[in-house]
């Protein structure tokens, strides 16, 4: 295998392991709310007796209320998780772009991991029931990627202008 392919594979593995590390860390230390369990008694056909109908209707309403509360909690969880993920991504991108520029494979791997983490954070942000937050998250993602592209590829690109010696 060529040296370029090996370097690419190391960069890719570092990037993927980094986003997995952040994702599992988030799931470990910031637990998602648990979904309510569907009532077992609603899974079976109800007898036609009217008291059973009233009871099953009350059970269904209670479950619906629990489900609505869970969706609200999950939206709030996704909002906070998205903010955490985007903040970590920005921090890692800054460190990898500014501090690890000389250690190419590790710096590039962490940059890729930061981009993956940013995309993961944006994905969590899309699950938030707030259009303004989604717009802000996508705008932040776009700005970060544009800055990253500039710093990584344009700032260091040769200008093509030669100075006379």
Secondary structure layout:
Blueprint: H1 3-29, H2 50-99, H3 104-126, H4 131-154
Helix pairs in contact: 1-3, 2-3, 2-4, 3-4
Write up what this structure looks like.
The protein has 165 residues and is mostly helical. It has one domain (3-41, 54-154). 75% of the residues lie in helices and 0% in strands. The chain has 4 helices and no strands. The chain has helices at 3-29, 50-99, 104-126, 131-154. The relative contact order is 0.13. The mean pLDDT is 84.
Mean pLDDT: 84
Model regions low in confidence, pLDDT < 50 over at least 5 residues? none
In whole angstroms, the N-to-C terminal distance is 41 Å
Largest sheet: none
How much of the sequence is in beta strands? under 5%
The gross shape turns out to be elongated
What is the count of DSSP helices, taking H or I runs of 4+ residues? Answer: 4
Based on CA atoms alone, the radius of gyration comes out at 24 Å
**From N to C, what is the helix and strand string?**
HHHH
The tally of domains stands at 1
Structural class designation: mainly alpha
Tell me the total number of β-strands.
Answer: 0
The helix fraction, in percent, is: over 70%
